[in-house]
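Record 1 of the preview.
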Amino acid sequence: MKNYTITVNGNVYDVTVEENGAGTALAAASAPVSAPKAAPAAAPKKAAAGAGSIQVKAGAAGKVFKIEANVGQSVQSGDTVVIIEAMKMEIPVVAPEAGTVASIDVAVGDAIEAGAVLATLN
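->
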């Protein structure tokens, strides 16, 4: 799979293309991504003394809607850690495996890109 960012009529899209080996490709486009803006004053982020070794990454670009887990909380594989809003839908981002939340690297309202690290687990 390959990820591309394309611009169509001034709208920026993140696109993932999967090559299936037969010379054809399947493409999936995400919602328009807003153009990068100047970074606002940094809001304090919740974090532990050290980041964990397991990364919890966003599957799509969007905005952080809600943070479901807290630093130090034990989570199981599949438990919701963060909820992002994309295309007027709430999308849960889940723990890829069991562990303890080591850091939350985003705040509610943050704009995020697909693949961004939202939290880490130990």
